[in-house]
Amino acid sequence: MSKRIESAQNKIIKRLHGLQLRKNREKEHVFIAEGIRFVSEIPKDWQVELYAVSEGYAKAHDISDLEKQAEVYVLTDHLFERISETESPQGILAVLVQKEYDITTILEKKNVFFILAEEMNDPGNLGTVLRTADACGVDAVFLSKGSVDVYHPKTLRATMGAIFHIPVFQNVSISEIAGRMRERGIPLYAAHLKGRQYPYSLNLRRDCAFMIGNEARGLSDEAAELCDSFVKLPMPGEAESLNASIAAGVLMYEVVRQRLVPRQN
Hints:
Layout: E1 3-5, H1 11-18, H2 22-28, E2 30-34, H3 36-40, E3 48-54, H4 55-60, H5 64-69, E4 71-75, H6 77-83, E5 92-97, H7 103-107, E6 113-117, H8 123-136, E7 140-144, H9 153-159, E8 168-172, H10 174-183, E9 188-191, E10 208-212, H11 221-224, E11 229-231, H12 244-260
Parallel strand pairs: 1-4, 3-4, 6-7, 6-10, 7-8, 9-10, 9-11
Antiparallel strand pairs: 2-5, 3-5
Helix pairs in contact: 8-9, 8-12
């Protein structure tokens, strides 16, 4: 049975407020999925701690299925608006447990395809990269220390549910991950101003990884030195550079193209 909450002093309301902060999400190893579509995309095997719905949502929808899965709290419409992080709340959210992945198992897979991001700061850019990575069959995404939280509400919305399909490792040491990839013989590439070849000349049918830099500064010298090769993207127009998520998308889809198109003799 669902439980009704009318007071802003209720411990559940205080907890939901607290989970708007990254430090609390990391401490509790949970995150919030908000909105009808987002909640509907939660996989059946994903651990849900609780659902919170507004009175209006509860009146307009059958919440009995939610009650079979986890605790359900019905908030007054006003309370739900207070804890919502969207401009037009749809009246439903879920608190989910962050999934843990084994990095060793993933690194040992065959014919892998990875993305590394150094200090990607914009939630929308990161969400777009994750959504594209999901579409392209990327095996995992590694985010360096200093990157925006993958569980930031804006990042999650931009992923369009991709967070449920692709392993993401946060706060990693780029040098450590690059070292482990080198041990496995996985070449690491980066789009860089010093690049002298296009990604189309690379053999991306085998294991490969791409490193993406900060939106404003690009890759640091330290990160660039970890890469095996630099590539450049053709830009016949007047623009000097591409948005980080767009550049990442171009590189990822070159991997897809090579792996889908039969090699010509």
